[in-house]
Amino acid sequence: MSMIRTFVAAAMLVAAVSLSAFQMAEAQGSTVMVIDDNKIFLDSKAGKDIQTKLQNIERQINNELEPVRKSLEAEIKALQPKLEGKTREAIGADTALVNELAAFQKKNNDLNQKRAIAEREYAMTAEKAIIDFNKALDPVLTEVIREKNAQVVLLKSQVVFSADAVDGTAAIIQKLDAKTAAIAVTRQKLPTTPQGAN
User: Whole-model pTM?
Assistant: First the structure.
C-alpha cells in the first residue's frame, strides 16, 4: 500500500471514529461543545496581554545580556590577529596570550551560564503566566459549559469536523474579556546559590 493510500485510509478511519463518537453523543442526547484553546489564548484580551508582557520580558533579558555579548565579540576580534599564524605550541609559550585566552573563555562561559539561567527564568515566567491564565479561564469555561448545557467538551484541534453551532470559543473569549482583561506577569527568578555552596 502506498504512503498516500495509507494516509487516506488513516484519515478516513479518524473521520469515521470521530463521526461515530459525535453521532453516539447526539443519539444519546448529549450536547457537544468544541473549543479552540489556541484561539482563546491568542485572541482574548488576557492572552494578548500575556503575550505582550512576555515579549517585554524577553526584550529586557536580551538587553541585559547584550553588553556582555558585544564586549566578548570585541575581545575575540582583538585576539584574532594575535593568534594568526601561530601554532598551538607558540600560543602555549606566550604566557600573556594564554592568560588573555583563559580570561576570554571564563567570560564566555559566564555569559553562556547567564544565558541558560535567563532562558530557564523566561520559561518559568511563561509557565506561571499560562497557569494564571488557566485559573482565570476555568470559571468562564464552566459558565459557558453550563449555558450551552454541554455534556461533552472537545478541543477543536482533536476534531475532524465541527459545526459552528457547537463551537463555544467566541462565547468564552467574550466572557473572559469582560471578566479578565489582563494577567499579572512577573519575571520569575531562579533561587541564587551562595558562592562556595556547591
Answer: 0.75
